[in-house]
Every structure is written in C-alpha cells, then in structure tokens.
Amino acid sequence: MIVMQYRFTLPADYDMAIVENRIAENGAKLDGFTGLLFKAYLVSRREDEHTEENRYAPLYVWEDAGAMARFLQSPGFRRLTQDFGWPQIDTWLALRLPAVDEVKDAAWLSIDRQPIAAHSDLSALAMHAPLCAWDVSRWQLLQVEFGDAPQAGIENYRIGYVASGVTDPIAATPHA
Q1: pTM for the whole thing?
Q2: Could you write out the DSSP letters of every residue in 72-129?
C-alpha cells in the first residue's frame, strides 16, 4: 500500500469555505474508486487550535502504484491542478494501516514526520500511530493519528470527508 499526500498552503485571508464547499460537493466522487483504500479530505484553518496556516491537504492510501497513477492521470486531478496549482506529492510505503471506519469516525487527523537515523534497526522503529509509513528515499517515518481533537506540536487537519474505494480484500487487510 502507498500513502500519498499533497498540500496546498493558501493565503491567510483565503475563504476556506470555498475548499469546504468543494469537499462537500465532490468528496463522494471518489467513493468506489478502484484501488483506493481511502482518501481523507483534510483542511486546516489558521484560526483553529494547533494549526498555523490555511491548507487543503488530502491524504490517500492506495492499494498499488497502478491505482495511484490512474488517479493522477484522471480529469479530477487535472482539474485540481488547474484550480490550485501543481503540487509536490509526498509518498510513503505503508507499514501499518487503520481500519477505514476508524478514519471515518474521526474529526481530526494529526501527522508527525520523523527522520529515521542512519544505521537504525529498522525492525525496531517506534511506531505508535494507527497509520505508519516510511519514505526510504528520504529516511522519514510518517505517523498519523485519528481523533476528536488536534494534537499539540504536530501538523493537524479537520477531516472534511472520507472517501473509500474498492480494493482487493487481501491487499487491504490492516497490518499490525
């Protein structure tokens, strides 16, 4: 499984209702997308507790690179880039995944990115979050928590909607 995220930082005076309306109108369009475990539509408002900027920053979990490519080549992604610009897309290989219902039941998503030190015992990484993944090209560990409130000291987003796709049930089994 592949975890993918892009973030659009928006001006301080940007009307975030535009993004929230876009999510309300279009979020369900990804329901049933083949190869998608879930997409969490994420928004931060600079006036929220434990957030600093206005952002739109969806987080995806893909079954494989083919599913991710189908999305990135889709008219929906093309329209997003026309509306918000060309994003840098971060990807990680999943180590641990939550049940989709856990994501859907949460109001907030909190992200912690940590460097993995050279020569670390990779079998002993301290993974505490329901969603954990790594980027071995940058030696970075991603830990994502889902809950009812933001967490101090890390990146926080309100969950506007969670779309769930259609996956191979064996490949989509959460890892311990």
Answers
A1: 0.91
A2: HTSHHHHHHHHHH----EEEEEEEE---HHHHHT-SEEEEEEEEPPTT--GGG----S
Which tens digit of pLDDT belongs to each residue from 36-90? Answer: 999 999 999 999 888 889 999 999 999 999 999 999 999 999 999 999 999 999 9
| Spatial CA neighbour of 150 closest among 16, 17, 52 | 52
pLDDT at 166: 87
What mean pLDDT do residues 152-173 have?
A: 82
Fill in the amino acid letter for 41.
Answer: Y
Separation in Å, CA 56 to CA 79, 85, 92, 116, 150: 15, 12, 19, 27, 16
Q: Can you say how many angstroms the Cα of residue 140 is from the centroid of all Cα atoms in its chain?
A: 15
Q: Which two tokens stand for residue 118?
A: 């050279």
CA atoms within a 13 Å half-sphere pointing along the CA-CB vector of 72: 17
